[in-house]
Amino acid sequence: MKTKNLFVSALLFASLLTGCSKDDGTKVTPEVKPDELSISGEVSGTWKKGSIVTVKGDLFVPAGKTLSIEEGVTVLMDTTVKPEFIVQGNLYVVGTSTSPVKITVPESARIAKNKFGKLWGGILAAKTCSELLLDNVILEYGGATATEASSSVKLGLYKALSGEMYRLCGSQMLQVNWW
Q1: Which of 34, 43, 106, 149 sees the fewest Cβ atoms within 10 Å?
Q2: Which pLDDT tens digit goes with each residue over 111-143?
């Protein structure tokens, strides 16, 4: 009986070591899905390489905190809420030429009528932002018009006038255009 249990254990161990294989003998590696997050509010830390992040509301990198976004991350902005990405601390978004970071909208919203975007607010640096780096980043479908309800307006970064976006610079107002 003891020999039989030892034989069964050895057989199970050997099957674990060999893994799955196709009929032709090649090994099958199970597909690993990247991290998938759904977020809003305060963010900091690191969004890992290749992950998918769905943004459901305005994002804030608090003063004194840092958010790093690694290569290959896809950030999907909600087109109903039209979130803003407000940086009060530090933001480092670093893709590569072969694996850029992509900040966009869900694929279903990437249609001809949305060619000029305005489906999410954009990335805004507050006065307390120390560093903001965007390297090898694809930004798509952004530039939604700020309103009185926008976080950027409530924080005094923009002033909503006649449906246009105006950036406050000291006592001057500059109109911001998204092309």
Answers
A1: 149
A2: 989 888 899 999 999 999 999 999 999 999 998
Q: What is the pLDDT of residues 135-146, one digit of tens each?
A: 999 999 998 888
Among the listed residues 144, 36, 156, the one whose alpha carbon sits nearest the alpha carbon of residue 82: 144
Q: Rounded CA gap, 4 and 13, in Å? A: 14
Q: How far apart are CA 120 and CA 126, in angstroms?
A: 18
